[in-house]
Design goal:
about 400 residues, alpha/beta, 18 helices
């Protein structure tokens, strides 16, 4: 078991909620990591003794509400009399909205894995990357951090760990989709997860991998890494709660017929999604010409001043351009009254978080990992943001 900073404090609060039959809001990011993490946390809480009626799950539609807490769903939780929120795969740098939640009377526990930056966070943060955390291994997905936390909770509350291990099959895929570096410290967990996938026929994962023609026979973690792109494209096809393409439903359903119908919808959306990304990527390649020029500039900043039709396509477009030009790619699009951006840098040792740190005065918000991150800025600040990036990459 891996000890995590602030885990005891969070466990004490959850133990109190369990004892007093409190209602809890369980809230997650909508991407593959976040959805798998929500399924894992939901099962872990149920198996720890929390009543299903006391768990209100929030998986927002990113098109409408973004990736973090939002006042719309906070208001719903408040009307339901909920005072405690467990947020997963977001929140480490969401200082303002967490403060809003605090002012609305909520206590917030965050299970996250994104990089920390200066700011006052009014929440109990569980994050291996936070200052003062003594865990040797920092390389975990959001689902991974959730699992480690619940290991601590089950141990502290003397709950049979085998109940938590029922959800081990939910660890490997989010580690792949979030490009988590695999090392000697997290590999044992990922191997256990793969073994669980092989031996536990969760219909959503079993039929999903079958659809991708990934056989469970003789599969290894290394071979799964080789299938990363296909896995991302499949399990990344979702938009939020209460839709046919909801991967959360796919993971929890025990009905193979229902799972097959969800997969059918995912395949349709996946085709439309891939065609759109292919079209936008081709426009970007044509715009920036040779990869030699891109390498000379050190980065690409490009986008469109309108809302994207396909949820999550911005990150995929930046990823495809990054693979083509082999330099950090910042792709942005309009979202409400500001620009929303996605960055990918899979072929550089320079951290994009450091680049965003340097230019933070021109950003509304940002966060992520050294090779994958997101940002928001006002449209009027785009030129000065570009100049800031030019200066940064000319020196790095």
């Amino acid at each position: 078991m891996i000890k995590l900073k602030n885990a005891d404090k969070a466990i004490k609060r959850l133990a109190s909620a369990l004892q007093n039959s409190e209602k809890i809001g369980v809230w997650s990011d909508y991407d593959p990591d976040g959805v798998f993490a929500l399924a894992l946390a939901y099962e872990a809480l149920l198996n720890a003794g929390f009543a299903n009626k006391n768990l209100k799950l929030i998986l927002p539609n990113q098109d409408q509400f973004g990736r973090s807490l939002n006042t719309f769903h906070l208001s719903i939780l408040k009307k339901l009399g909920i005072k405690l929120i467990v947020g997963i795969d977001f929140g480490t740098t969401d200082f303002n909205i967490v403060r809003t939640a605090k002012n609305m009377g909520f206590e917030v526990i965050l299970l996250d894995h994104h990089r920390q930056r200066p700011g006052k966070l009014l929440a109990t943060l569980i994050n291996p990357w936070q200052k003062g955390d003594k865990a040797d291994n920092k390389n975990w997905s959001g689902a991974g951090v959730a699992y480690l936390f619940f290991e601590n909770l089950y141990n502290k509350l003397n709950i049979n760990i085998k109940k938590l291990e029922r959800s081990l099959d939910l660890l490997l895929i989010p580690a792949l989709t979030d490009y988590i570096p695999i090392d000697k410290l997290n590999l044992p967990y990922l191997k256990k997860s793969l073994n669980k996938i092989k031996n536990n026929r969760r219909p959503g994962i079993y039929l999903g991998l079958k659809e991708l023609k990934i056989s469970k026979n003789n599969i290894t973690v290394k071979k799964m890494v080789g299938e990363r792109v296909n896995i991302i494209n499949f399990f990344g096809s979702l938009r939020g709660n209460n839709e046919n393409t909801n991967v959360f439903k796919l993971l929890l359903s025990k009905d193979s017929k229902e799972v097959a119908n969800i997969i059918k919808e995912i395949k349709k959306q996946k085709k439309d999604f891939e065609n759109f990304v292919k079209k936008m990527t081709a426009i970007g390649i044509k715009k920036f010409g040779s990869s030699e020029q891109a390498k000379k500039d050190g980065f690409i900043l490009w986008g469109i001043n309108k809302k994207l039709k396909m949820t999550g396509s911005g990150s995929k477009i930046s990823h495809q351009l990054n693979n083509y030009f082999k330099v950090p790619c910042f792709f942005y699009n309009k979202e409400r009254d500001y620009l929303k951006g996605s960055v990918r840098s899979m072929h550089s040792d320079t951290s994009i978080i450091k680049a965003l740190d340097t230019c933070k005065n021109f950003l509304i918000n940002y966060g992520g990992h050294p090779k994958a991150a997101g940002f928001h800025l006002k449209k009027k600040d785009l030129p000065i943001f570009k100049k800031c990036l030019e200066k940064y990459y000319s020196n790095n």
